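Summary for the steering committee. One of the milestones for this cycle was to obtain a three-dimensional model of the protein with adenosine-5'-diphosphate bound, which we needed before selecting residues for the alanine scan. The sequence and ligand used are listed below.
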Amino acid sequence: MAVVTPDIHEVLHRVFGFSGFIGQQEAVIEHTVAGGDSLVLMPTGGGKSLCYQIPAIMRDGVGVVVSPLIALMRDQVEGIRQTGVRAACLNSALSYREVRETEAAVSAGRLDLLYIAPERLLGERTLELLSRTRLALFAIDEAHCVSQWGHDFRPEYLQLSALPELFPDVPRIALTATADEPTRREIIDRLSLRDAPLFVSGFDRPNIRYHVVPKNNARAQLRRFLERHHGAAGIVYCLSRRKVDETAEWLQDIGVDALPYHAGLGGATRQRHQDRFVREDGVVIVATIAFGMGIDKPDVRFVAHLDLPKSIEAYYQETGRAGRDGEPADAWMVYGLQEVVTLRSMVQNSEAGEARKRLEVRKLDAMLGYCELATCRRRSLLAYFGETLSEDCGNCDNCLTPVAVWDATEASQKAMSCVYRTGQRFGAAYLTDILRGRDTERVRRFGHDELPTFGVGADLDAYQWRSVFRQLVARGLLSVEIEKYGSILLTDASWPVLRGEAEVHMRMDVRPAAATRKRKAREAPPPPDPATWDEALWEALRTRRTELARAQSVPPYVIFHDSTLREMVARRPCSREGFAELTGVGETKLDRYGDDFLAVIASHESRAEAPAAKPPAPDTTTESRP
Ligand code: ADP
Ligand code: ZN
């Protein structure tokens, strides 16, 4: 066999217009080009696609990419075609003619990449086609879908275990952004990757800023948060379909371009809403978790959770959909006692077996622990994935606005004793009335104004008591009886606290108004260099990009990312050579679009120099609405 030293750097530069690899890309690509199997764990936005695209381009034959979401394949294929790579897809959304055309292209060896849904791959017809075709590799994207313990399990993925037997000589590369240990083991096991090396990249997403705010008035809080993201694309997650519909409607009423997305909407509506989100600028999707996996939109500026995700993995994956382009983005969540109760009851009432339930409870507890942190959130998230951050991140709410911790042992004892003396039959709001000594009709009717705990908690206000109850329940020091309208109960863990054997320290929740003021003061992101920035040129370039995108009905970002346009503004290339040096400009894009954008720059330069307008803040730079 001839020894070739294919230059992966040359391909990176010529095809993709990038100057260097990031993270583990180079190692993975070398390994795959040489024909090795591997498991690749990289965060969302970490650059997984190149790990199989470059080897597929360089190796003989077609690279087969298995991906679970056929709705996204078109954009994926479109995106890679823009760089001149020959790609197509096979899925149930295609017409018979399109399928025939793609099959013919595969047979004739006219493709570098074939994207395919798992159920399709293992169909007889496709297997027959592939068995007489030269294959460069199999890339199994979203490989965690093979894990039954995971949150995105897809039964079709289990059949992928047949690949090594059917195609023993074709290298397989499994990729995922979900990295917890049990899921990882299951992927290795089910996809027979025991002897394959594992490539793990840092999971940190430094451009994402994490915030968790105690719930006060969720809508008002969301509204205030959205003011900072005016005109930007984002996702708002809710647990139920009804809440999705109601929230989307309310957002429309207050002038946000919001659309609902959940499994209860018809397929056509879902597709339409997703298309608008991907192809237009500044659309906000309100969704259940049914939305988002594999969405490639790079310029999502925020992800907001109105309900708690069920696990840290789910949270990290959902928040990870923000800021794939590396520009500042926000992950924001409101959270209160009610959310804890709802999720706990969902776990308890689920049909799952005992072992599964225990696992779900553990995952939920880890999620609650994250919410109640008083220390750096990024450190804790990364630690959950087995990574250590040597110092606090400086880009999460707790770092930006340090949280005071207070000794809540006495308050906890008062709360617990109040629960005990009222017979474990009441909810947090009523217990708070007793603790604060409120003389209400209900309190008197039950004779609770006679209790020794009546009024012993007058030193804290209702907001603070709500925080105490929430934190006690989150830590399992109290529990909530879901069947009985949210009655608070003691747990085994309550007794050491009541007996004075255990201390309780809690975060001192910052009241919303104060929190906003502090945040604003630190918020201003660094503006582009005013010496080179030119707002009018920027707008002109974006307009041209939108026109080109519309003409081909593709999303604007597949032509060029915002960051490439920004480089055009800063460097104002005036020749094809200069244009080719921009990040994200490879051979094909230079040919296709170089002259277009050079013309925009040239005609702009020739105009009288208008005084430069104010540069936009990086987190509001989405394309202008056509
Ligand atoms: P993932 O699939 O891991 O979420 P992608 O493959 O979509 O990530 O890549 C995320 C973004 O990073 C894309 O916009 C891509 O163009 C960019 N990117 C990937 N590799 C490089 C690189 N070596 N240099 C510059 N940008 C890159
Ligand atoms: Zn931090």
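Key point for the committee: The pocket of zinc ion (ligand 2) is lined by residues 376-378, 392-393, 396, 398-399 (CB under 6 Å).
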